[in-house]
Protein 1
Amino acid sequence: MKLFLKKILYLIIMLFIISLISFIAINAAPNSFFASGDLNPNITEEAIAHLKAIYGLDKPLYVQFYAWIIALLHLDFGISFASGELVKNEILSRVPITLTINLISMFLVFIVSLYLGIKAALNKNSLFDKFAGQLSLLSFSMPSFYLALLGVLVFSIWLEILPIAGLHSLSNATGLTYYLDTAWHLVLPISIITFGGIGSLTLYIRSLTIEILKSDYIFFAKARGLSKKEMLRFYILPNLYPPVITLLGLSLPGIIGGSVILESIFSIDGMGLLFYQSALSHDYPVIMGILIIGAFLTLLGNILADVILLKLNPNYDNN
């Protein structure tokens, strides 16, 4: 319970610091949504001043920040400059698809990297070990946007087996057909994120496994006649889980941040595409809302990683 309360306090403090830094950075940006060219070429300075007064942008920055924090405590992210809709509603409508893509991708990254890394370590210097090493190097040396464009070119244009973009091809689909259509459109984006994430983790797991295999308890386990499956279950995996889960928790920001590029390329109506569109239009309330939601999900993911580690090892304490 003490560890849990510390984590909650940590989450609150970090969210406040992230909010402050984000607010300062956004307000220091050279352009503004209310610049004459972004609204209407014929808009007057009086009209712009009136709009700023409506949104409270005519007040000092510290007053704006205080008002924003108070509104945030009530889960109010303000009103979008571009659409006039509540920022909360715009974000909540897009969170599910972004979370779905990233959670599935993280699970696949974990499973694939664990398999490749352990098998490569158990068969060190074999053909499979060399294959896993080359695949890993290829994975983290290729940018995600290049992989996405290459995937579209090969699987959508040349082979014509996967959709190019969007979430649906069947406009009137309902029930199971609707979800299957959505899943088919997510095959390529999830595959790209998974392939881009397995590289460094596979090499890390391989290195850890090799070190574990050199330990004394593995030597005595072999002397007792334990099979590879038994060593894997009772010795290798229990020692791999803590560092791997910690690394996955730390990689959350990169995975969520990658959604901006991939959702834009695949025209997926998620948080990443909304962030990109809002950045182009200088829609600051939406940008701030997405930054806070993204930071919250990242911090929550790290806390969940600690909870999982505590479950695996009751003596774990991240002091």
Protein 2
Amino acid sequence: MTRLFLTLFCSIAVIALPLPATASSSTNLARELLELAPTLDRKVLQRAVAAMECALDQGADDAERLAIIDFSLPSSEQRLWIFDLESRALLLHELVAHGQGSGQNLASEFSNVSGSHQSSIGLFRTSESYYGRHGYSLRMDGLEPGVNDLARDRAIVIHGADYVDPAWIDRQGRIGRSLGCPAVRQEVAGQVVDTLKNGQFLFSWYPDPEWLASSSYLNCQSRSIASLQ
């Protein structure tokens, strides 16, 4: 009888154990951000949070902002979201260009190769702002070897561009395309750069099977990310 009681007690105790704090906090973050951006695909947001949390587990410094680009959406739609992680606020929801080599209105080809004029997917860390040929711009570093780690060498930066203009959509069904950079509207370029500079996270999504299978950030074992239901 005593042994049966102990067995039942232990079973109940195990069931009652809470989720690990890290998994619970990650799930809460994703849910809160989803409420702010209901048009952002739930699975894309979940992947972005998982990738960021994995980088933090591996020793990356905390960030104040998280930007998400969903390249599975056409360029004629607003597919860039920028979140403030501290205040839990959606700061911007904007148009963003992809590279000429990635496709027309829909991007489908991505590269880490100089001269490809294709966009790169994966997890990035933003770096310093500067003034260059496109005006006020933002450099960033790809964190995924073989996927986006040549971003700085390729001069893949965030900058403003005249061709990121809703008027282009009315004329040709899409905005203009870059040489691989995630270009934004001139009117918001300064705000985007200032919001994301100095070590924020940027996650560019496309359901590429090879990347999904091989990305260390999407297949991180150090933290369990509970699914959003």
